[in-house]
Write a structure and sequence with these properties.
The chain is mainly beta. Helices cover about 5% and strands about 45% of the residues. The strands form two sheets. It has a five-stranded antiparallel beta sheet with strand order 6-3-2-1-7. Strands 4-5-9-8 form a four-stranded antiparallel beta sheet, with no helix packed on it. A hairpin with a 2-residue loop joins strand 2 and strand 3. The chain is globular and about 35 Å long.
């Protein structure tokens, strides 16, 4: 597992990030940088399998305070041909297992 890459607000469009939403952590991809935060498309948890992009994009604008950090792209690994990914990130693993 890897720790999040903490940067000084240098996230870019296309970066993978970890966000906090309603007390839970989710991986996602930066779609746009906006005033006060990021518009992020988040993945959903596939219990026992990993993470998956939802059929309908799950995009929200998250304030900087909800952005936990950048996830190294080498830690987002496809694990099957149905769009399920393993996201090797200590913070996500400690919350979701």
């Amino acid at each position: 597992m890897e720790e999040l890459i903490q940067e000084s607000r240098e996230e870019k469009v296309g970066d993978y990030v970890c966000i906090e939403y309603e007390g839970e952590l989710y991986p996602g991809r930066v779609e746009e940088i906006v005033d006060g935060g990021l518009r992020v498309n988040t993945m959903t948890k596939c219990i026992g399998l990993g993470w998956k992009w939802p059929t309908t994009k799950d995009e929200l604008i998250y304030p900087w305070s909800d952005i936990e950090g950048v996830i190294n792209p080498s830690c987002v690994i496809p694990i099957n041909n149905r769009g399920v990914f393993s996201v090797k990130c200590d913070q996500l693993f400690s919350r979701w297992g």
